[in-house]
């Protein structure tokens, strides 16, 4: 993953999706180790204000493939007509499109949390039970937020996410969507 200083220089010290200047963090864009600089709203850590995601219409023209992938993935989750039109208008090279679609569920596979809510790539979930992490020597505590999850493409019962700096596989029955 790129160093935070390199990302700040590339992004001009603002979120690479919406242009916000506060609370910026480097976010890895799986399945690669490329990263983008995002604010709390674009990381799904705080509620997006009305109309916030319209920023995707400008961000989709970024020259940075990691940003293009994040925009493509977010547009794919929105149901508004403008988002569908923007997604259809995105021009990505074959490699970037494959990256954007990597980790997406196979047709017919839906990942659902403990309450039955549909999970999507990049969602934030909260653990509903203490989970011992095999091979890592710690227990992921109930109430821990797991941000930016990845869906396991061929198994609807599993997601991946980072807990205490470790990338782990989590069963969907032990999480709820935030």
Automatic annotation (TrEMBL):
Chain ranges of the PhnA protein N-terminal proteobacterial domain: 6-47
Protein name in the entry: PhnA protein
